[in-house]
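Most newcomers find our protein records easier to grasp once they have seen one. Read left to right, the backbone structure tokens trace the chain's path through space. Once this layout is familiar, the rest of the handout is easier to follow. The record below serves as our worked example for the rest of this section:


***
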Amino acid sequence: MVATTALTPYFTAAGVLLGALALLLRRWAVGTVTLLLAMVLVAAVAPRAFPDPRPVAVGREVVVMSSNLLVGRADAEALVAAVRRYRVDVLAVQELTPAMVRDLDRAGLAAVLPHRHFLAEPGGSGSGIASRYPLAPRELTPPGTLRQAAALVDLPGDDVEVLSVHPLPPVVPDGPETWQREMAGLPERDLNGPVRVLAGDFNATLDHVALRRLLNHGYVDAADQVGAGLAPTWPAGALWPPPVALDHVLVDNRCPVETFDVVDVPGSDHRAVVTRFVLPAR
């Protein structure tokens, strides 16, 4: 059930087509019911393709990027090139391995983002944050199956907390319970603290209740804000399984989102995501 929820946009399109076909074949009852159900889904899904009203705010622009490195197989030079191209301030990575750290160093990441909090591990459990500005490690989640690095980034004039999100996928032999628990452990917005950003591979789409919970508690999805909420991030460069948006950047809803892009990173099965938003002056 959790996996099929990710396919809601496809079910929506299929429902509209099947309902229209049924009406063309004069199957009035079937066509009408199917179209009515499809329209309910359309009302939920279609707005993601259109930008939301942008709140007015004055402050510093921040660029945050997230990339799942596929157990260290991603092309480090391509990733660092993207960091330079988008002038990234903070990079969150998942599935960071010790070998990948060495590859990133050889590719020159430290010259662009000299400050880091890396929790590199063999396999797919590593995580990390690299920053243009000084940072201090934070603990924002309970212990989980995969590491989720967090840091307080000391931006000029203000601070921002960034969490590299990576809960265990729900499609595992033991079922989705661990994913549900780890999604529930992601921190809500803190109105009394620094602005908080959750960036990473959520293994969830905007149709999952666990992700909607965060959006109902003070975050916005950067892609959804600019009309890119249907842009798929996994699997990169493949048509099966059907591509879906599993990677997100959630920002405090007081932060106007300026841009959102998906970036192909050779060697990874995920496309990176990068967003530019305004950190309101406080």
Observations:
- The longest helix spans residues 28-45.
